[in-house]
Design a protein that fits this description.
Helix content: over 70%
GO cellular component, one term: plasma membrane
Oligomer: single chain
Function: Essential subunit of the Sec protein translocation channel SecYEG. Clamps together the 2 halves of SecY. May contact the channel plug during translocation.
Shape: elongated
Radius of gyration: 28 Å
Number of domains: 2
Order of helices and strands: HHHH
Organism: Marinobacter profundi
Strand content: under 5%
Largest sheet: none
Distance between the termini: 81 Å
Protein name: Protein translocase subunit SecE
Pfam families: SecE
Length: 122
């Protein structure tokens, strides 16, 4: 059963998500309404509204869980062994050559089929 604190926290979470939705709606409608204004000012206003909306969203339970997920993902990314530059170049060359070979094969088959169909039709 949900405790009283959990119930009020979830009620506050719903209100916070409503605030996030209203902020996003203000950004969308405001951007349209002020379309004659400078693009720089509109972008700055949208960035500020986005940051405020993100801040409010991160105050909810789901937002905190998402923030934790981002932190854990960052830790996992640090564990990745990235290829060296020579490995990267070698792999890229292999992929490009393979794509060119397959493209030439497909072009050849297409030309052969076109030639056969043209010969058959007359």
């Amino acid at each position: 059963m949900e405790s009283r604190a959990d119930s009020s926290a979830s009620r506050f979470d719903a209100m916070k998500w409503l605030v996030v939705f209203v902020l996003v709606a203000i950004g969308v409608v405001g951007n349209q309404y002020f379309s004659a204004e400078s693009l720089l000012y509109r972008v700055l206003a949208l960035v500020v509204l986005g940051l405020v909306a993100a801040f409010v969203a991160f105050q909810t339970e789901r937002g905190r869980r998402f923030a934790m997920l981002l932190k854990e993902a960052r830790v996992e990314i640090r564990k990745v062994v990235w290829p060296t530059r020579p490995e990267l170049v070698q792999t890229t060359v292999i992929v490009v050559v393979f794509v060119l070979v397959v493209a030439l094969l497909l072009w050849g088959m297409d030309s052969l089929i076109s030639w056969l169909v043209a010969g058959f039709i007359g």
